[in-house]
Design goal:
Gyrase A, domain 2; 590 residues; alpha/beta; four-stranded parallel β-sheet; single chain
Length: 590
């Protein structure tokens, strides 16, 4: 189905052409004065200059044509030259009936030429617990992935683990001190290594910070860790086996934590997966004259004439020949292009890394690691702050673990549900609290433009009123309750259909529903999940306004009542589709 705005614009184009004016002036937009009209066209103001004619005279002619069109209830010319349009209720009802026939997409057209898009989001380090700094990447990336899939594209999510470098050497060194008897530290051992890891996730999470602290105070300890890192990267068998254990234990725990956020990844690749591609990549950059030595380091110039501020060279290897994050990220692009040939790679990372990714992207383009037609996109996100406007911390000033934050909000939602006494069963209340808490976290984040900092306010985010996840879920549950009561009355809607609106609030709801395709398309094109949030907030408000003004179950005309029920079902289905692409769901009761 075509977007309703496109259909309206097409009729306006015909009217402009019929009056002898160029169709380019016929662009229709949503009205910025909904009290006056539903759609508007300001093209007559621009056309006036070309046709040397007063804009209101042009608007008068076009309005006369459009007022005869069955699509419109009214088409008015307003000085100095605005066109104010209102849709016919019968036409609008017919459009919604067509949407309702498409149970999966509600008339939203899938991409005619699907793209393969890789998403780099997550970025956790192995052996370290997820903390709130990982929240935004996971939530935003997951939603972009889901929106892209809904729009018909092949979206591939990669967690991109931090599993290389000194942190691995630190863990090995500390483990060697704590458990020197382990066979992994015997360089002469040639047998099979144990299948079970010699540590739990709790032990592993204690080992890394302890090792990191020691390395800052003890130079010999740090030297030992650097040596262990070198031997690991040179392929020492025992250390490679330990790396496998570290990865298995860490990834199992990471998957559990991400699952609690309803976040999943198609690929669990890490920095270590890029290492085999580095030697050939570096050699190619040297041979083709892109890389050169500067102050002992190997670099590639990435500045451009149009730069308004300095963009330093992209460093490929340090003076001692060691690789850096730049090296790993570039090598990661190499394997992604080799194995997947994506049309685009989107990086969902902290916006403070923009300069770094500018260097990496320019280097990848300049050295032809990607083709001219491959898009590299930086999706930077802002900081999640506390009420004091500073980065969110625990009460004692530390960085909060992600699972503790989720647990805290689960508990807050459980208390609210129990206070409302809406659910008597404790088990159901706990389960519902978990669902609603996730909506509070995700919607609280996604309703903000990704690039902006925002205040993480648990009290506001868990409210059942206002622009919050729980409010959206409450609206869905309200519809479910009405539909259940309708069914209990023994009513059926098999032959029923959405009817022309009988009130302004009903028409307002129908207009909101009709904008679904445009909202989804805009959210994907601009990689902007907040557009979906804005859409469903408007839709939920329109539904609740209609509900409060309309006696749905008390309506005596059964055909009218069945039409209301059809409208409610469509609203519920679209709201549920939208929250699914945002990464959460609705309970049956609240």
């Amino acid at each position: 189905m075509e977007k309703i705005l496109d259909l309206i614009t097409r009729e306006a184009e015909k009217a402009f052409a019929e009056c002898g004016y160029d169709e380019k002036y016929a662009k229709v937009t949503l009205s910025n004065r909904p009290d006056l009209c539903e759609y508007q066209c300001n093209g007559a103001l621009s056309a006036a200059k070309e046709y040397k004619k007063a804009p209101f005279l042009i608007a008068d002619e076009v309005a006369e044509i459009l007022s005869k069109n069955e699509m419109f209830a009214s088409a008015e010319s307003v000085k100095p030259g605005f066109l104010n349009l209102r849709l016919d209720t019968g036409y609008l009802a017919g459009y919604l009936r067509e949407m309702q026939k498409d149970k999966e997409r509600f008339g939203c057209e899938a991409a005619k030429t699907p793209k393969r898009i890789m998403l780099d989001y997550g970025g956790p380090n192995v052996a370290k617990p997820l903390h709130i700094g990982h929240l935004r990447s996971a939530i935003i990336g997951e939603s972009i992935k889901r929106i892209g899939r809904f729009m018909g594209h092949e979206m591939i999510g990669d967690v991109h683990l931090g599993d290389w470098g000194l942190q691995m050497g630190l863990i090995i060194t500390e483990l060697a001190q704590r458990k020197p008897e382990l066979v992994y530290f015997n360089p002469d051992y040639t047998g099979e290594y144990p299948k079970e890891a010699p540590f739990t996730i709790s032990e592993l999470e204690d080992i890394y910070p302890a090792a990191s602290a020691k390395s800052k105070e003890d130079e010999a300890y740090k030297e030992a860790a650097m040596q262990a890192t070198y031997e690991l990267q040179q392929g020492r068998r025992g250390y490679q086996a330990l790396l496998s254990h570290i990865l298995n234990v860490s990834v199992t725990d990471l998957k559990r934590n991400y699952e609690n956020l309803n976040v999943s990844f198609d690929l669990w690749k890490g920095e270590s997966d890029a290492q085999p591609y580095i030697p050939d990549m570096v050699q190619k950059m040297k041979e083709e004259g892109y890389a050169y030595i500067s102050e002992g380091a190997l670099v590639v110039d990435v500045k451009e004439e149009s730069d308004t501020k300095e963009v330093p060279p992209c460093m490929i290897l340090k003076s001692d020949g060691a690789s850096l994050y730049n090296t790993t990220d570039l090598a990661t692009i190499v394997w992604r292009m080799k194995d997947y040939h994506p049309d685009e790679i989107i990086y969902v990372v902290d916006k403070r890394q923009e300069l770094y990714f500018t260097q990496v992207f320019r280097c990848a383009k300049k050295t032809h690691l990607v083709g001219e037609d491959t898009k590299l996109t930086f999706q930077g996100f802002g900081t999640m702050n506390g009420k004091d406007g500073k980065p969110f911390k625990t009460r004692d000033g530390g960085v909060m673990r992600l699972e503790h934050l989720v647990s805290e909000i689960n508990e807050e939602m459980y208390k609210k549900i129990m206070e409302n006494k809406s659910l008597a069963d404790e088990e159901e209340a706990r389960k519902t609290a978990k669902i609603v808490a996730l909506s509070a976290i995700k919607y609280g984040d996604l309703s903000n433009q990704a690039s902006k900092d925002y205040i993480f306010d648990i009290e506001r985010f868990t409210s059942f009123e206002g622009n919050t996840g729980p409010y959206i879920l409450y609206t869905i549950v309200r519809i479910k309750s009405i539909l259940a009561k309708y069914n209990e009355l023994g009513q059926k809607v098999e032959d029923a259909k959405i009817l022309p609106a009988k009130s302004e609030s009903e028409k307002a709801l129908m207009l909101e529903i009709s904008h679904f395709s445009a909202a989804m398309d805009s959210a994907f094109t601009e990689t902007a999940p907040h557009k979906v949030c804005a859409y469903i907030y408007g839709l939920a408000n329109a539904l609740n306004h209609f509900y409060h003004e309309t006696k749905i179950l008390a309506e005596e005309d059964k055909e009218v009542q069945a039409g209301y029920i059809c409208l409610l079902e469509l609203t519920k289905d679209i709201l549920e589709k939208c929250i699914d692409v945002l990464g959460f769901s609705a309970p049956e009761r609240m």
